[in-house]
Structure to design on (295 residues):
């Protein structure tokens, strides 16, 4: 049998728990939302996982600038890739949810538009990486751009939705976690789900990094 | 012991039922689906899909490990 790292097992357990608990545990009964409040466990968690991944990516970009190494560059780029993947899933799931609660697939909400711009910025990051041939140069340029991209992410997802009015709960003004229309029972599923999807993302990252390393070994 | 536990469960069930009757009427939820037990079908389907994804991940994991080993031995 293959020995699995503990956090990979934890990822499986937590996501499994979020699927089962997410459907069977009671949720607050709210107008408009109805049962779609359960999307919090699946849609919002993707975004949280993305933000964790992008944070790691940014940290490793800074590390790479301080002390360039292939490992740092690889972690930075692959976490950004998987973060982008989660972001796309988050956007699509959000559009479906919006259609049935806000009435349209795309309402011009500050946060929705902000995420779209953020995703485009990260798309540009992958394009930028693909367009530079030299390894060292690519690493440095990508790292600088990635830090800029993360600042934009914080601006578009963290600050602008709070300064302006957003349809998203927890925005407009300066609310903290208290404002997600959640009760404590929901948090018992929500937080583990975030950790679960984040670890799942790390698992994808792990595979991609290892495959990249194999590729490099084969081409040398 | 057992009796006590059962009693607690019964009380909990009754309280849940009362709270359901008291508050359940204003906002439409999928309570009917749960009553008839069919929400479990959906959960089962989703769990199956997720298990499928995990099985795929594990297979990939095995494959990568194998290649890593082979490359490690060669160099």
């Amino acid at each position: 049998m293959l020995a699995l790292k503990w956090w990979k097992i934890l990822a499986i357990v937590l996501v499994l728990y979020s699927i089962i608990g997410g459907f069977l545990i009671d949720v607050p009964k709210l107008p408009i939302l109805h049962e779609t409040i359960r999307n919090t466990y699946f849609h919002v968690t993707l975004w949280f996982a993305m933000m964790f991944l992008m944070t790691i990516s940014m940290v490793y970009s800074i590390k790479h600038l301080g002390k360039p190494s292939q490992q740092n560059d690889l972690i930075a780029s692959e976490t950004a890739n998987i973060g982008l993947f989660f972001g796309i899933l988050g956007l699509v799931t959000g559009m479906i949810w919006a259609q049935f609660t806000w009435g349209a697939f795309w309402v011009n909400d500050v946060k929705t538009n902000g995420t779209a711009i953020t995703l485009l910025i990260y798309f540009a990051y992958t394009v930028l990486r693909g367009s530079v041939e030299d390894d060292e140069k690519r690493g440095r340029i990508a790292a600088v751009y990635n830090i800029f991209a993360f600042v934009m992410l914080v601006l578009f997802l963290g600050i602008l939705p709070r300064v302006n009015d957003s349809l998203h709960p927890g925005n407009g003004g300066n609310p903290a976690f208290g404002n997600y229309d959640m009760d404590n029972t929901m948090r018992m599923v929500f937080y583990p789900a975030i950790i679960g999807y984040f670890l799942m993302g790390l698992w994808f990252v792990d595979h991609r990094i290892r495959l990249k390393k194999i590729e490099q070994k084969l081409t040398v | 012991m057992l009796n006590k536990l059962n009693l607690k469960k019964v009380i909990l069930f009754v309280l849940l039922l009362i709270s359901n009757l008291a508050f359940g009427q204003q906002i439409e939820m999928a309570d009917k689906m749960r009553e008839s037990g069919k929400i479990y079908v959906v959960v089962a389907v989703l769990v199956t899909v997720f298990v499928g994804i995990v099985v795929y991940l594990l297979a990939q994991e095995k494959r990568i490990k194998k290649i890593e080993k082979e490359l490690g031995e060669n160099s």
